[in-house]
Amino acid sequence: LEVYRKVITQLRLLVCGGDGTVGWVLQTLDNLNWPAYPPMAIMPLGTGNDLARCMGWGGAISDEPMSQLLQAILHETAITHLDRWRIHVEPNEASPLDSMDELSEAVQSSLPLTVMNNYFSIGADAHVALQFHHSRSANPQMLNSRLKNRIAYGGLGTIDLFKRSWKDLSDYIHLECDGVDITPRIKELKLHCILFHNITYYAGGTVPWGSESGDGHKPSCCDGMLEVLGFTTATLAALQMGGKGERLAQCSSVKVVTFKAIPMQVDGEPCLLAPSHISVTFHSKVPMLRREKKANCTPNLMRRNTRTYHKDSQIQSTSLIVQLPVVVVGRHDYDTYKDAFERLKDTAFEIGVINMESESDLTVARSLIQKLLSDHPCLPYEPGREWRFLDFTFMRAVKC
Fold it and tell me: Which residues are in the DAGKc domain (predicted)?
């Protein structure tokens, strides 16, 4: 990435992976201390892919050709933004670990991530995520695909549904949202899980806030607000069938105090956190590429024309037509002079010019060059199909 710092205004990133990979790339950009971040598209290769869904890239990779996906990044996207949130943790020295917690080597004094992109949760769902994390660490060969991961995750969730491991969560937590104490509401509803949500989707495509805006405003990933929801183990399970959580607040800052080691997760990274004081505040806003065939927000600066895609037809384009001279060199000459560029140029033979759209790929170029080779009346080389591109700074050539 550092190589492209000087062309940052023209740069677009395609992240191939899950939400965790997106977070890793953003963290890398943080470490590089770039003055601005390039917009980012996502190829959803993870398990949940909730951020990819939110940005219009879907929950799983499709059979769409890579060339079409790259064209979509240029011509079917709009620039939106993603809020990021800082999570600061300090130990709660007034509540030392009890004897049960002290026996657990898994208790940690800090969270695995300090910046949140998607969500931060406390309680039952983090407990399941932590169990899954331990299972995968112990048996990586057993959980090496998306399907196996989802089956294992679902099984652990079902077990936890009946055990109700964190039915007493409200006894060990104090929550304030924008200075308002939400703890009485948590106790009243006897919640087993608290979710601080930044994007629309959660847990592999569920919509925990629901589709109706209600008394608050419609959730957005770039409004500077977090949605705070509560769940019991039963309502967590019901999410996969269209259920939703209990709306607690929409806020721009959160303070949490815990009085016991409690499972927590940040963007899918779980841990068992010791009693702590936790604050969640706005960190930054980064540009993302949302896939929209009819974009209604900030236009993608790299969009130069409007295209209509059809699976079995050519792409209609109004991009510039460029003329490219085609020069050939023989295989023997190339092998002899490949390290002496000027000598290689002296052996070159120009066979004509091809006209191409400025954004065409090498497949189009190859077919046009092959036609030139086949139609040339006095080519000094046998016009076969086993040739390669040689892309030089001062000339375009193919090796026959």
Answer: 1-91
